[in-house]
Amino acid sequence: MTFSGKATDKADEVDIDEYLKEWGVDKTNEARSGMQDAKAHPAARNVTLLQRKHGKLGAGLGKTSGWVHRAQLAKAEVTMIGGASYDKIDDDGLHITITDKKDKEKKTQQVLNVDNVILCAGQEPLRELEEPLKAAGMKVWRIGGAEEAGELDAKKAIDMGTRLAAKIEDASEGEVLTMDIGTGAKVIEFFRDVRNKKAGINQ
Fold it and tell me: Hey, which residues does 188 pair with through a beta bridge?
């Protein structure tokens, strides 16, 4: 939705050379380290990103790639609105109500004049097999989206499955095995946040 080019273009038809210029990549490798000054291009569309909860949009994105998505949204000048509820869609556009973060009683109604509405409705855990398996005398553990579907994290799901497999003979039924973020990872995360703030990238 936010790539450069004509609004009628498809995402896979974006000009590669223009994309590289936008991110400051010198494909000739003549510039030092293969990087040069980025040339921002306006997005082909005006995009508004909404979410129901308050707080920074994209705060739950993956640590390894989330900053890229946030940088792309910032470059495309995407309008981000939190604390929104969706009232209706009609010929006038998308009707929303925005609740103030500090004063929950303060609400503002707004109509967004939009051509397209894309819904990201989220998901809920699917646990229909759990009780029948337990009733059959089998041990059951939840991992990944079956344990918590909100803001799915593939890295976390793989980690949970690996840890369970490593001790499944001795694991207590229903035990949730998650990774413990050690001191080293916390230090790396701290310096990454400092770097991003200096670069003007919102987390």
Answer: none
Above 80 in pLDDT, residue 202? no
Q: Inform me whether the pLDDT recorded for 90 exceeds 90.
A: yes
For the chain, domain boundaries? 1-45, 46-121, 124-203
Gap between the Cα atoms of 162 and 16, Å rounded? 39
pLDDT band of residue 62 (cuts 50, 70, 90) is low
The label of the residue with tokens 């995009």 reads 47
Q: How confident is the model at residue 50 (pLDDT cuts 50, 70, 90)?
A: very high
Specify whether the CB–CB gap between 99 and 107 falls below 8 A.
yes
* Alpha carbons 37 and 29: distance in angstroms, whole number: 13
Give the pLDDT of residue 185.
Answer: 58
CA torsion angle 48 50 54 59 (round to 10): -80
46-121, what's its fold?
FAD/NAD(P)-binding domain (3.50.50)
Mean pLDDT of 43-65: 78
In the DSSP assignment, the letter for residue 35 is B
Q: For the CA atoms of 13, 14, 16, 18, what is the dihedral angle to 10 degrees?
A: 150
Closest CA to 141 of 112, 117, 175, 166: 175
First to last CA, the chain: 21
What's the token pair of residue 185?
């990872």
